[in-house]
Amino acid sequence: MTQRRRSILLAIALAWGAMQLAAQESTVYFSVVATKLFVVGAANPRTGVFCQHPSADTAWSHIGPTNIRAFGVAVHPGTRQQVMYIAAGNGLHKSTDGGATWRITTGWRITEVLNVCPDPQDTKTVFLACPYGIFRSTDGCASWVECTRGLGSTFTQWVLVDEAHPHTVYCAAEDGAYISTNRGDSWTRMGLSVGGVRTIVQDPSDPAFLMAGTENNGLYQSTNGGIWWNKCEAGIDHTTFYAIAFDPQHPSTIYAGGYVTGIYKSTDRGVTWKRMNNGLDVLTFHSIAVDPHNSARVYAAAYWGGIFRTDDGAASWRRTGVADSQVWTVVIHP
Amino acid sequence: MKLLASISLAFLLGVSFVAAQQQSRDEYLKTYEQRARFVVSAFDTMQQARYDVIAARYATGKNVQLADSMFQALLKECRGDMFWMYPVIGAYLHGKDVMSPATRDAVRHAWKTYAPYRGDTENHWAMYYSSLFLAAEQWPGLAGSEWFNGKSSDENLAEARDYLEHWVRIATTIGQGEFDSPDYFPEYAISMSLLADYAQDPAMRQRGNMMLDFLLADFAADQLDGEYIGGFSRIYQPAVFKPLLSGASAYAYLFFGTGEPTQNSWVLLPALGKYRLPDIIFRIATDRSTPYLHKERKRVRNVIRFGTEKNPPVYKQSYVTADYGLGALQGGILQPIQQHTWGVRFVDCRPTSTIFGLHPYWSAYELGMFFPEELKPLIADVTLSKGTYNNPDKWTGGSPYERTFQHNNTLLVLYDIPPGTVTEHIDGFFPGNLDQRNVDSSGWVFCKAGKTFVGWYPLQDYVWMEERETPAQAKNLIGRPENVPPDNIIVNWRLRSHHPQNGYVIEVRSVSEVGSFEKFCAGLASHIPRATLTPGHVSVEYTTLEHHVMRFGFPDSRVLDGNAVDLSTYKLFEGPFLNADVGSQRLVMTYKHQRRVLDFTTLKVTE
Question: Which of A134, A257, B151, B420 is a plausible cystine mate for A285, CB 3.0–4.6 Å?
């Protein structure tokens, strides 16, 4: 093999390696509702959605409109990060060009959108949760249908499309947790008999394994798709949980956080929990996301403390941006 | 012959009456123009770069080039959301025919690149959608890429129209949600004024004109010499102490000629506008020759959780004379944070011309009814911008443990505060500049405010606390400094009672009603209420000066002279001046021989 040929092969190998690395590079997005200086109509610091590649770990880039009370952010799977959503006070914003331009897809009747969940298997279908109920679009957000049949309260804060069964949708309402098996056309109450359900998440490796966080009533898990629920007790000293996240690579590892909880971690599928607060100077967390390519890397959205990051599986945390901001949602897109 | 003489006399009387009326109207219009010019004169020569200054300069033609440069400079850094939208479109509409092409381009560019927050309450949406409607009309046929929200001109116009039509419909069927707010009145009036002046769509222009009539008539009936009367959905400090500091009072000055001259920015755009107050509303606002009772039904702001009804009704009653107005909402949580449940306001003893009471209350539950954010941090969130919300000494806010029962110029207020509530005391506000504030051996506290006399009978013991105005109270939190000289700070008084089962009786009369303060005191001294004040059983029975027997049981048992009072029978408006049935979208104004009907179903005005 000539020197020249060896060089070419080396270059090809390096390029391939770089491509593989890039292919595994995640993007982290988080949404800032407000900063401590926020007043409606005033000269407010920049809020909205920020993003970063974890390897860069420098400044966060702002994308999309500012000062819209951005509660949720989501990327539609299967669109190469081109289709993105921001759930906001102004309604549901959508971008089809990777965040370069945005359009409010909802009208005045849908306001204060708290959460958005794209259907992972259908790039035209999106659900959103807001104080006036669950709304669904099946035409790429051109039109919306109110989905409140069967809900006891229309105040909903969370909606989740089942990864394995897209006709199954879960939602968290003021008066409890609901399930729909017909894409939101009607809802029935799940077996979780407490109110103030705040979030419902699904084990990526076992769709029947659900966890729910509640206001004042603790943390729950179900192993049968929400029919029966067990309260997580061992090691839990708090009652209000806004955030739960599975480690996609090791789903026995689960993180949870809420009102003055700090960050809880379980490595035995939610049976026992331990607080992992080293480096945290605030304790209320609203959202957690685990890097799908690196289990040790976790981001946590502090309600009034910015965004925190760990690179050692929560053994230690450091703030990585937007201190004094109310961060509502953090997501990592692979 | 006799018949002919009678006809002639009637004709002459008629002619002279019409002539007198016309003269009176001419006089009103003349003084209105003077007041409008006075307002505008504060802005059209100002050197500071502000949107209101720009609008005034364009409208009056005073140094348009300077206005252009101010406009372009400000548009380089857009901020303020819906509070940016209306002044920008207002300034643009006043100047679009005289501004430079570069300025016109800068305005257009701003509507493409700056994304304002739509807000979370009714006044925000009124400003947002009225401005968006006008902007979409100004720049028709543009694609979504030319607008901040990605929607085309047609889509923006349609959405704005739909919201505005909805708001008008709901306000004229079950009432405004952010009702009778001395501090938020301008946000609605400006929005409607801009539509009335500049909407190209005739129906929307008419809607703007009619809603201005509607808003100003609503205010006129609850207005006394510039002061908003009664219970309010929202009020800031210090307008709660000093009624004429509110934005609404600036409208009273401009349109009614009442109150005190002011050059408040909140009234500038209407002062530049074409709307002229119909004579009948002016009469309603200013004729206080006969005391009257005015009732209204409004609605609670959208209840998004902890409720079964999205917009429960609010029942408001005001009794208005030439000297004072006493008004109340029924009590309970009707609005978050800044509710003013009851108050008496008077024309004498200004600036602090009011007496009122409240239970200082706050809770995440209350906030959660109206705001979607997480419950537990909500109080901390709200106090970032509404610093007094969780202050036990605050002077605004409703309480679920407070209820009222008003009959004309008599008011009963009861409290049943459960143990563990954030505060277990109630407070009463008494201005320091009253002519007299005497504690009588009968238990009554007698107050004299010029020609107005107020009796307050506390049902439990209490203490007096000195209430020196702080800079925070002397300065309006939304940015209207009052400039009180330090040596002119008033020391007011707080009546505080620490009993959770509590209440008081308020009697208000004027010299024209009872003759003198001495007679008022002597008459009331023998009118002692009988109360039951145990947890879960709070009631009072009281016989008024006119011998009406009022029996009031907390929370909602009200009996007058043996007849149960049913608040649910309240109409949208009911009184000598304004009448409207719930759901009717039809407001009938009457004043002596005059009549004006606003029919929002047909967008017709008849007289």
Answer: A257
